[in-house]
Amino acid sequence: MSNLVIKNLHVSVETNEGDKPILHGVDLTINAGEIHAIMGPNGSGKSTLAYALAGHPKYTITEGEAYLDGENIVEMSTDERARAGLFLAMQYPVEVPGVTVSNFLRTAKTAIDGEAPALRTWVGELKESMKKLRMEDDFAQRDLNTGFSGGEKKRNEILQMELLKPKFAILDETDSGLDVDALRVVSEGVNRIHAETNVGVALITHYTRILQYITPDHVHVFANGRVVESGGPDLATQLEDEGYDRYL
Ligand code: ADP
Ligand code: MG
Ligand code: MG
User: Fold this and answer.
1) Contact residues for 157 (Cβ-Cβ < 8 A; gap 6+)
2) CATH superfamily label, 3-94+166-247
């Protein structure tokens, strides 16, 4: 079975004052088809984990390993990680003026598959996915994330996930800043892709709200750069009542 195994991961981020250690030994295993909610207070290192796994140049893995289907991704470039089947939906998607959503997606798909998708099926898939995510057709011709509302940016991340068909997806606060309608559309999208492709998901979130729509198999609490507690969906309910105070 496909899996993503993170062992004793230590990560530093590059700052103006030099490298700053953020993650202090994270262990986490996600099997294909599992949904893991990664929760925790602001500043606990959730995005750092996401960036480090995706291969962001400012985040250095100083110790530990991460394996995707047995292959050590720590030694891979960002592109190689994506080709191996890893996908990151960013907390703050980057605006790219001059590159349309359609061109970006086709370029990314070509890079990941090693060949361009057949035009006719591709256009059909893109339209179909956009429709399910309640996006108008002309959305594909807009410049990537440029002037997008919060909800449009997050739906666009899910559109990428659907078309790129990763083995593992890290969704970093895909729920933040969404109104209830957008949250429902995004959650339905994740659930549909999960059911259709058996993708393994790390759902990073500060709030329990999205877990009313997406049911996690496992819940992990992050604090001060470590996983401090793991449990089932009940743990999220408990956090909803009690907050993160007792981990600080
Ligand atoms: P979370 O996503 O859980 O809110 P982050 O991973 O974004 O947490 O941040 C964890 C810690 O690392 C915070 O204390 C934050 O200030 C620090 N940090 C992250 N990125 C940088 C950076 N580029 N420069 C300085 N500090 C950073
Ligand atoms: Mg499942
Ligand atoms: Mg974050």
Assistant:
1) 89, 90, 93, 171, 174
2) P-loop containing nucleotide triphosphate hydrolases (3.40.50.300)
Residue 52 to residue 56: CA distance in whole angstroms: 6
Atom from ligand 1 closest to the CA of residue 15 = 24
Cβ–ligand 1 distance for 47 under 6 Å, the answer yes
pTM of the entire predicted model:
0.96
3 state DSSP class of 181: helix
Residuewise pLDDT in 10s, the chain (248 residues): 899 999 999 999 999 999 999 999 999 999 999 999 999 999 999 999 999 999 999 999 999 999 999 999 999 999 999 999 999 999 999 999 999 999 999 999 999 999 999 998 999 999 999 999 999 999 999 999 999 999 999 999 999 999 999 999 999 999 998 999 999 999 999 999 999 999 999 999 999 999 999 999 999 999 999 999 999 999 999 999 999 999 98
Residue spans per domain, the chain: 3-94+166-247
Nearest residue (by CA) to ligand 1, atom 22, is 15
Q: Is the CB of 45 under 6 A from ligand 1?
A: yes
